[in-house]
Protein 1
Amino acid sequence: MKRLFSLAAASLILWSCGGQQKETVDISQMTEDELIEYAKGIHERVITLDTHDDINTSNFTEETNYTQRLSSQVNLPKMVEGGLDVAWFIVYTGQGELTEEGYARAYENADDKFKAIHRLTEEIAPDKIGLALTSDDVRKLVAEGKKVAMIGVENAYPLGTDISRVKEFYDRGARYMSLAHNGHSQLSDSNTGERDSVWLHNGLSDFGKEVIAEMNKYGIMVDLSHPSKAANMQAMQLSKAPVIASHSSARAVNDVSRNMDDEQLMMLKKNGGVIQTVAFKSYVNSDKNSANSAKSNEILAAIAAENDFEIKSRGEMRDMSPEEREAYYEKYTAIREANADRIEEEVNSVAPPVDVSDFADHIDYLVNKIGIEHVGISSDFDGGGGVEGWSDASETFNVTLELVRRGYTEEEIGMMWSGNLLRVLDECQEIAKKIQAGEM
């Protein structure tokens, strides 16, 4: 899939430093090395921003932290390697019971994650990464040569029934928040209701509607990733400020409930918001991902049998003792790692993985459908995200390279990497000032 206005022999517009002149760059006349170098220049000049990176607070200690090249998909060395400037670290809370005890546990989890992000930026590595609260903060930190952390809240469940926590979360650095995750919250139905057509609120609860007004008041962007379609439509009708979908793709390209359908997309366009296209394999191309996974499991099972090792089902693993499960994982991991090249070669020749090109197909669709000013980029790293070619932050350049190949200009690439999202943040914060001043 290519965007409708991109030609095979694409000409890109390169603006001069003064912004007064422009020259046409015909990438069809470039060698592969020249194209890569050209794309590297764009990647270096634009601010690259990923709106969704989950965290494990065990990686935010003095002993183990993001200054090290950990196995996590995002950390400072990998951000430097891939040229990723801004990572939105996520205060994620899984959905639990709608009880005072459940709310208390959820708040404790959120509190731990807020503290971890502040610990990284204020105590562990303030010389390497800073916390941004505004678009001006982002540009200032990047100009200083630092990486940038921002905070998003995935699932407002930790609010409990206390609306004052909206401002508390704002004061602690949250700049977007979704009202649900997988499972209905006290504020909103979840997209997961599509599995059984069982809904709790038929969209937003009354408290959820109050929370949206409070988010508008303080400048927290409303995030549409994870709530149900009905909840999202109601949220866009109610919000006085533009909204975002922090990590969702196009349902017309891949029909899963976590992707946004055209009706939601057109309303998001009218609202002035932005959808941050997500590089999550099963959201990008479910059939291709399933075929790749099935073939991987088939090859791995054959290799395991050659090593007198039997792959166990999840049910069988649940029945194991902790010691047996640990021994099983150790052997399983050793076999998989020792045969990684063979697995990749045998699987990819038959069932290739979901890759950056498949991801860019969603970007093309969204740009054609609602306009480039409403499209952004996200990974969902360390939360299940990543595709072949953008499997962690160190490979971020490959996204820019693919966009250059498809004929996007430097200005357009800059808009999608950060310009559109920061524009929405600016507008939300301006509207918040007006609401607080009694002007709206």
Protein 2
Amino acid sequence: MEALKDKLESSFLVLENELNGEAQSAVHALRREAFQRFLQMGFPSKRHEEWRYTNLKPILKPDYRIFPKEDTSVEFKDIKRFFLSDQDTYKLVFVDGVYSSWLSETTHQGFDVCTFSNMLHKYQDVSDAYFAKALPKDEALAAVNTAFAKEGAFIRIKKNITADKPVELLFVSTDHGHEIMTQPRNLVVVEENAEVTIIERHQSLSESAVLTNTATEIFALRSSRLNYYKIQNDNDTASLIDSTSIKQYRNSSVNMGTFSFGNKFVRNNLNFFLEEEHTESTLDGITIISEGQTVDHHTLVDHKVPNCYSDEMYKGIYDGNAKGIFNGKVMVHPHAQKTNAFQQNNNVLLTDKASIDTKPQLEIYADDVKCSHGCTIGQLDDEALFYMMSRGIPEKEGKALLLYAFANDALRNVKLPALRKRLNKQIANKLNVNLDFEL
């Protein structure tokens, strides 16, 4: 961990030397401040309460290159399978942290789907208003991302506009023959009464270790509507640390779906800050992992004001010696009366070696609220399986059907038919069964 910390420190000096006049900009002042916070905090360890179930040491041990120097050509045929095949979308593709214009489709017609670097250079008002304004200051990995924030996606849907098609974000890591670390930075602003759907994926084409430390800031302004889906289904040499923070304003609606089917290691830090009244927030997640894989979900829904609604449902299926962590906190402040907040985490362990550490939390400082939380950890229902087998369904297919039905609830808010079809197929693949229907 110390070796990577030293490498990040020297890499930050290189970044500053390459900025020339930009080193005196307000943006870089925020970068410098964030990096100083990281140096003071260091990488989190199991001594930190928020990381007590997760050991980062194996993930941080490889000798990562921070700025890959080689240019690697990627053709559309190499990444076609990662996009929705039967849905027209805007596409933003980044290869080893570098924007690929010829693999992407952007727009500035009524709204902006372009790059973070473009925003920094052309929309200073946006940068001043939103950059580094949503992520918590006490998250060390988010601070590292802010320090190195140079490239990623910028999406701004302007007032009263509905994006005419979804946006797909694809971050690709290629094989350089050595370990690499990338740090994408995304900014999403959905203005008053605007609407958009976004799908995000990180995919490694490398057999070497890849660490992606990504951060996304989202601002849902008044009466806006946002559907944001993360598909995490990478190979077993890829690790992902994802820090996403959303600020919601009056009458806005944000639906976040996190679907984790792969990777060696995934840590999702997801924070909702409800800034004004009458917001709606939904958080759904499905985790299906097996041998040697770890997925750690940390969520916060911060009810600061009255009359807001949040609903959180995470489902997990763990096979082999897979490890899951769920730490979900709902905070209701003293003035946040009339809050409706619900949280549920249900898990199935398929073997004796699989494990899940789950900690749903409610902190309520108001008295006129409706709040509930709960979690379950169990195995398949033997009686239900016996009933299905007695009706002629083979045991393997019967188990898969029960697991599919268990996970399917967390697809309740997937509005896009093409994405729902893709997710159903991936769930079936993970359960090792052919399912040609949808519950």
Protein 3
Amino acid sequence: MKSTTTALIFFALLLSVCPVALSAQTTSDDAALIAKARKIHEKVITLDTHNDISTTNFTDAVNYSQDLPNQVNIPKMRKGGLDVSWMIVYTGQGPLTDAGYAAAYKNAIDKFDAIHRLTEKIAPNDIGLALTSNDVRRLVKEGKLVAMIGVENGYPIGTDLGRIKEFADRGARYMSLAHNGHSQLADSNTGEADGKWLHNGLSDLGKKAIVELNKWGIMIDLSHPSKESNIQAIKLSRAPVIASHSGARAISDHSRNIDDEVLELIKQNGGVVQAVAFRAYVNGKKNEARSAKSTEITREIAAKEGFTILPRGEAFRLPEAERTAYMKKFTDFRTRNASVLQEKLKDVPDVDVKDFVDHIDYLVKKMGIDHVGISSDFDGGGGVQGWDSAAETFNVTLELVRRGYTEKQISKLWSGNLLRVLDEVQKVAKKIQAEK
């Protein structure tokens, strides 16, 4: 006891007479850790599985070669060291009618065309479209950024399952069968809110869609469909599945996150869950408190400017052209007032990179390092403090290094696991296509 007391007194004296020395040591250690993280970040292939797009940013005059106000573009990817962006062919859920399907298909083709326009005409020397893991590695080796295509909501295929092969031919490498709202293929996670379901999982057409997705090498995405839909999809699939942008429900209880039962099924299936940096899914309570204060302040600023802010759900239900126009105005408004808002919110805790990596830690513990990846949902509502655009991508690697992840583990999390699943899905597709 005496020796312990003496040691404590000595340590207290050391703190009082040598604060500069200790601070210098801490600074030196932190600098070494940052340097280590930077080296790892530059070596591994960084891949984000979910970035929404607006086709208004894919024109000759306005495009991703410019540092636009949005969260993902070529300059921001270069700055943050993000190698691969999965650009999303998103279609909001509409009526299950011929007219609804036709409008959804038109919207999807417009987005497919935009991505091809970027990689083939607008900036082919800067970014290329990858269809396989080998394409990814080749493009990165060439010093190019990489675009890949995911389809969020199978609604645009209508009742024509032949469109699955068409979408594969256009470059789609994953697809979810529903978004927010039940589709013709599957129930959505949003059914939890009112307990109303359309199919009690997958529809008969949705079950057939699983077969076609397997056949044409498109990864099945579990991020938006209901739990029952996902359980059925995993059981029917002959290939590994993914959740392109979802968190751990045990950490944050949101219908968009995945519970332990389904995590175990995905692990057994050989699939991967791409943890998502979306504030509301990462830490619901912290996000709600900050959002309430932010909304209060934002509405005060908007009222002074005469700008009407729509609830997120209402904005996403707008027709595509109106939604795009509104989102541009909202982005301009947010950018213009960002510094004022941040100053007023400085004492209100934000959901940050540490909260996000808590999900990665949990998923790794529950599923193993081979079944976890990383996503942002940028330009679709995603982002956390410290990773609020592609320009801040390094901060995720830094936090992983702080927590003791090795270069090999970080490589798996950033891209290795997802690309392994893509390889396996494409291998299964070749086998199915060869069957009589």
Protein 4
Amino acid sequence: MQSQDIKPSKPQDVHIVENNELSIIEALFPVLVLVLMLFYNVFIVFGDDALSGSNQFILLLGAAVAAVVGFFNKVSYKQMLDEVAENLKSTAGALLILLMVGALAGTWLISGIIPTMIYYGLQILNPTFFLVACVLICAIISIATGSSWTTSATVGIALIGIGETLGISLGMTAGAVLSGAYFGDKMSPLSDTTNLAPAMAGADLFDHIKYMAITTVPTFTITLILFLIIGLNIDVLGSPDITDKLLAIDGAFNISPWLFAVPLLVVGLIVKKTPPLVALLVGTLLAGIAAIIAQPQIVMQIAGTETLNFQSAYKGVMQSITVDTAVETTSAELNDLFSAGGMKGMLGTIWLIICAMVFGGVMDAIGALSRISKALISLAQSTFGLFASTVASCLALNVTASDQYLALVVPGKMFKKAYDDRNLAPENLSRTLEDSGTVTSVLIPWNTCGAYQSGVLGVSVADYFLYAFFNWISPFMTLLVAGFAIKIKQIKAS
């Protein structure tokens, strides 16, 4: 859930292009071609390096295939370009957020904020219960802020570092971070998608949140149990000796609990509904000041000088904000951990989002998104079939439109009347949109959410996919509840 991070002016008024001349085969053809090309590109040729550029170009090739289909169905080049422009416009906030998160990570490193989090976290978090703690911590922060993006960009980064130091798989830690972050985001009244879903379905916000608990609480409970089982059986080299790592951190940074003031202020600003860009900018600038005060030796090292003055301080902080920076310690493991790419490090993710938006824009312009959703609606012959079609539509939109908002808006508009006709309360639709559209967006590498979280946490979607239990169990839970007709709310008693 992007929450306040990506916010079109009026997401419920997003225009959905229809093209009655387009067949379902033509609508699905670009998707099939894209999936085949991505499969070959990732699993046969490039592997983990696919996100360095080749996947981005594959998305553009997919857009070209969709454009050819559009030309054959009398869709003009201008129409397609206009829809692409609208898509790109809707992601402007996301791209700026990504750049600011890169800047934040750089200054939080050289100021000692992230090392301080790791330093104290290593002493507090028991390896056996670390993953469960990750889920709970991120859930609390995300409920308070209404943003999974803010959660992963702040406490999530620190938890990844702590997990790596404890010898726990990056994929496991990232999965735990995202499971907690998306649970909190989904259940928070401050979240944009939590407001958007009931707006699309015609439900009351707090009725929607209450109704979501039927599927969300069991899914969250299962997630905690799974991470507890993993924690009890995980091989973390027994009870790891962290003394050398604590000494290494203490030797490289001036560790102080006062440094927690910056992240606490950022979270406080978000809770007070300060625009995330403003909160992250404030966090970046304050961390830059903290770096000059608390870690002058690191600022001078990055600036390449032996004296601290205005110019060297400016250069050191600016370097950390914009380009690669690294702080060496006596621990080789920590040397890999204490590095940041700054704003430059986010350019690959931004490139991916732009290319994904091109593909989604062309698919919308030729009427493919609308056609796929209508085909799914036509398959719904029962109440369960209607729920299943909604889930499938949300998943399909997350893959094809590459944007979480469209995965809520398009199915929300298309299925609203079908739910009304079956005497189903709007909460059924809004909950299903969230269970299948909001939380699964992070499981798609080229979706804005998948690209963002992967870029911020430094863990590929393939590595955390399996462990993001909450995210992929959620759509199955909503189908289970529908299949057994558990508390299916109706507009009026039958």
